[in-house]
Design brief:
Blueprint lengths: L1 H18 L5 E3 L5 E3 L1 H7 L2 E21 L10 E17 L4 E17 L2 E17 L4 E10 L2 E6 L2 E3 L3 E3 L2 E13 L4 E13 L2 E7 L7 E8 L1 E14 L1
Antiparallel strand pairs: 1-2, 3-4, 3-14, 3-15, 4-5, 5-6, 6-7, 6-8, 7-11, 8-10, 9-13, 11-12, 12-15, 13-14
Length: about 240
């Protein structure tokens, strides 16, 4: 009897599974099915454009080197700074799960004064991103591109060398986010990104503050820059 009951239950479950509607079909009162168009529209491929505003927490270290007297008193300095930035992007939805895009913008700009000198760091970038979209709106992604970190270093004691230096650095990124559909073609996009790049080395000469007021060389190398950013954006799908 138990075997007959088990076979009957298995047959019922199998029949239910075979006759179950796909997740993008909704059963109506007439016994038929209606297509869930949100599912259908997300499944199609196509182009999109958008923009983001971001808040970033930058971490890096300035590494100094000089041949001036008492150079052992010159310590490296670590920085943790909050900056504002943003960017524009254009991409293509490949299928239901995958998107690819190119993004360009400004991570941010920071400036501070230190012992009579002014240091400014500005980071524009261009990066190619690939995303995997989950059905619930969340997504993950990774990117690779180029950053152009620019350092401006100036003050009254500098007597030689350019006051600005631009570097070209590989940039890598990992992303996690959530997209919410606002309208037929418009999406609200919330994203966290961890990215990394390397800053340039900047060389200048300065006049020593004590007799005989000789000139000495000094360099500032910006080390690994970590960017933890949170952004909000809009995405328009054609």
């Amino acid at each position: 009897m138990k075997k007959i009951l088990s076979v009957a239950v298995l047959a019922a479950v199998t029949a239910t599974a075979v006759n179950a509607a796909p997740s993008h079909l909704v059963r109506n009162n007439d016994g038929g099915y209606t297509v869930n168009y949100d599912y259908y529209e997300k499944e199609k491929s196509g182009w999109y454009i958008g923009g983001r505003a971001s808040l970033s927490l930058l971490n890096w270290e300035n590494e100094y080197d000089t041949d001036a007297p008492n150079s052992e008193m010159l310590d490296n300095e670590s920085y943790t700074e909050v900056v504002f930035g943003g960017g524009l992007f254009a991409g293509y939805r490949l299928d239901y799960f995958w998107r690819a895009e190119v993004e360009g913008g400004l991570i941010g700009s920071h400036e501070h004064d230190d012992v009579g000198t002014t240091f400014k760091l500005t980071i524009p970038y261009v990066i190619a991103n690939a995303y995997y979209d989950f059905a619930n709106g969340f997504y993950v992604g990774a990117g690779a591109g180029i950053a152009l970190p620019t350092v401006k270093w100036y003050g009254a004691d500098f007597v030689g060398g350019d006051d600005s230096e631009r570097g070209v650095s590989p940039m890598g990124a990992l992303m996690f986010g959530y997209a919410h559909k606002l309208d037929y073609n418009l999406w609200l996009d919330l994203r966290y990104r961890l990215s990394a790049l390397v800053g340039p080395e900047h060389n200048r000469s300065f006049q020593y503050v004590e007799p005989p007021y000789d000139e000495y060389d000094i360099s500032n190398k910006v080390g690994l820059i970590l960017d933890n950013s949170i952004s909000i954006g809009l995405r328009y799908e054609f």
